[in-house]
Write a structure and sequence with these properties.
InterPro entries: Cro/C1-type_HTH, Lambda_DNA-bd_dom_sf, MLTR_LBD. This is Helix-turn-helix transcriptional regulator. The protein is α+β, with helices and mostly antiparallel strands. The protein contains twelve helices and five strands. It has a five-stranded antiparallel sheet with strand order 2-1-5-4-3. A hairpin with a 4-residue loop joins strand 1 and strand 2. The protein starts with 5 loop residues before the first helix and ends in a 12-residue tail after the last helix. The C terminus is likely disordered.
Length: 287
């Protein structure tokens, strides 16, 4: 690590904070806002740090942030990849290597995600790593983005954690499993993601005979089902259409789940929005 440039870091954070509007990050504007852009406490809450910690950073007296904290700050402030790298350098860290597996969510996808408060949506990598989810997606699938290691990956949880499958009806399990394996096979065949995909394949083969059988079928193709049936312990089953918006390099995709207008599914999703995170049944993870 290098020494921090506290004055420059403080100035950069303040300027980026003041450039954001509450609507840019899905925050209600409220009345009588005297602060341009976001408030410090809003940045702290969205980042997952204490208000005092963030205030000290802007006052040039904060301790050196960890790489995990910088990644969260970059996401909250909707920084571009270049701005993210600059933030790391000011804080005395080397910027993360830019690869197709970079977990820094594309700001363009985040801007769309922030405006989707009535539809479950999440951003996923080419390897099926869940990078960020909106509130409704967390209610239905759980917040995988807060997990670590292989638990963030769709294929891993599907084949190693039986509870994951509760979000789909049993009749759809085989089709969904094949889709996950085919997508992983596509990532395994790409030079940009082959090494990490190979590590995941080896780990899954060691844990799941079912995965091994499906992998040996050699089905390949990145797949997003156009229609899904989901199951939630509080509202039962409901159908949604599935749309994916990919970045230009196809390294990340914003997946949006929408019910038909004026349908029973739409009513159930509205109910889940009211229930929020107060889920009475066992939590499940996003497959």
């Amino acid at each position: 690590m290098e020494p921090m440039d506290r004055p420059a870091l403080a100035d950069f954070l303040r300027r980026r904070r003041e450039e954001l509007r509450p609507s840019d990050v899905g925050v209600a504007p409220g009345a009588r806002r005297r602060t341009p852009g976001l408030r410090r406490e809003e940045v702290a809450a969205l980042t997952g740090m204490s208000v005092d910690y963030y205030v000290r950073l802007e006052q040039k007296r904060g301790p050196q942030p960890s790489e995990q904290m910088l990644a969260a700050l970059a996401r909250t402030l909707r920084l571009s990849a270049d701005e993210r790298d600059h933030l790391y350098r000011l804080a005395g860290h080397h910027p993360p290597e830019r690869t197709p597996l970079d977990t820094h969510v594309a700001p363009a996808l985040l801007r769309v995600l922030d405006r989707l408060d009535d539809s479950p949506a999440f951003v996923i990598s080419a390897l099926g790593e869940v990078l960020v989810s909106n509130a409704l997606a967390c209610v239905i699938f759980g917040d995988r983005a807060r997990l670590t290691g292989w638990d963030r990956y769709s294929a891993w949880t599907w084949f190693t954690d039986p509870a994951t499958r509760a979000v789909y009806p049993p009749g759809d399990h085989e089709r969904h499993a094949r889709s996950l394996v085919a997508s992983l096979r596509a990532a395994h065949g790409s030079p940009a993601t082959a090494r990490r995909a190979g590590e995941l394949v080896d780990a899954l083969r060691a844990r799941s005979p079912e995965f091994g059988e499906l992998w040996d079928r050699h089905e390949v193709g990145r797949r997003f089902e156009t229609r899904k049936t989901l199951v939630h312990p509080e509202v039962g089953s409901f159908e949604v259409d599935c749309q994916a918006l990919l970045t230009e390099d196809q390294s990340q995709a914003l997946v949006v789940l929408t019910p038909e207008p004026a349908s029973e599914a739409e009513d159930k999703i509205r109910l889940l929005a009211v229930l929020g995170s107060q889920v009475f049944g066992p939590s499940v993870r996003l497959p």
